[in-house]
Structures are given as C-alpha cells and as structure tokens.
Design a protein that fits this description.
transmembrane helix, translocase, two-stranded antiparallel sheet, alpha+beta, ATP-binding, 15% strand, ATP binding
C-alpha cells in the first residue's frame, strides 16, 4: 500500500551494538484515514484489540517525552565561548594583554585597561547568556505542566469511549479530540 521505511533506534549503552529497526509511518498527516488504519491494523469502529494494545505498548513504550538532564553551570558558561566572534574577542584580549605586558614607559598600567575591558564584556556576555539559557529551560519545564494527563480513546475491550492516562495512549489508538 505504501513504503515501509525502517528507522534505526539505537538502544543500550554508548558503544554497544544493540539496535532496533522500527516500522514508522512517515508524513502520517498526509495519509488518508484508511491508510492510517491499515498501517496500524486498526478497526475504525472498535479500535485496538487488547493484544494489539499490548504489542504496541511493548514496541513503542509510554507516550511521554524523555526527561532531559539540564546542563551544568560550567557547561552553560563554556557554551557562551563557542561563538566565533567571542573567540575573536578573547584572542584580541590575549594579544592586547601580551602587548601591554611588554610595554615599557610611564603608561604601562593604562595599557592593561583595553584587555581588561574586553574581558569584562566577555564575562558580562557569558552571564547574560547563561541567565537566558536557564530562563528558557525553566519555561520549557513550565510548559510540561500543560500536558494533558488524560485522553479519550476507542478500544475493542470496551465498545465506547474510555478515559486513559495520556502516557498509556499508543500508536494506533483512535483518540477523541475535542475543543473546550
């Protein structure tokens, strides 16, 4: 009916060779209802059977986003110095500091002002960058509170709509979508 692309999902520890090839429907939003039902072998009037539900739950796991570990403070600070312009300014500060070090005469102290100012600007830039990154992470965490906890699905074991936890919805479930 339509191609069966195999996507490779690597599992296990880094360096291990464990992989799982999954049959995934690409561009599901462009398919007809009949194509989607056929792909997941679902009966439109009754939904998934108990056996299909069990298989899909084992194959795909829970319907939830994986928890991401936040970056440490030092990782965030180091990220701020990965930008090319920041590295150029850091190099300019080093060169300016080296030239000031070897400068002789009355104005030797004032020669250190330029590299000091450049370093202060880079430090201020890093502080602002880390602050913005933390705010973005906090905003994403706050959005997770708006995830629905329950969903309504049609399944074969009960002939009407069932309320299930959103994490228990699996690919192939017929989900009732309603506006408020």
């Amino acid at each position: 009916m339509f191609p069966e692309p195999a996507h490779t999902l690597w599992t296990g520890t880094p360096g291990s060779r464990a992989c799982l090839s999954l049959r995934v429907m690409d561009n599901a939003h462009t398919k007809t209802v009949e194509e989607v039902l056929g792909f997941f072998s679902v009966n439109e009037s009754t939904g998934l059977s108990c056996e299909q539900l069990k298989k899909n739950r084992e194959k795909w796991g829970p319907n939830e986003l994986p928890a991401e570990e936040g970056k440490s403070l030092w990782e965030l600070v180091l990220e701020q110095f990965e930008d090319l312009l920041v590295r150029i300014l850091l190099l300019a500060a080093c060169i300016s500091f080296t030239l000031a070090w070897f400068e002789e005469g009355e104005g030797t102290i004032t020669a250190f002002v330029e590299p000091f100012v450049i370093l202060l600007i880079l430090i201020a830039n890093a502080i602002v960058g880390v602050w913005q990154e933390r705010n973005a992470e906090n905003a994403i965490e706050a959005l997770k509170e708006y995830e629905p906890e329950m969903g309504k699905v049609y399944r074969q074991d009960k002939k009407s709509v069932q309320r299930v936890r959103a994490r228990d919805i699996v690919p192939g479930d017929i989900v009732e979508v309603a506006g408020r």
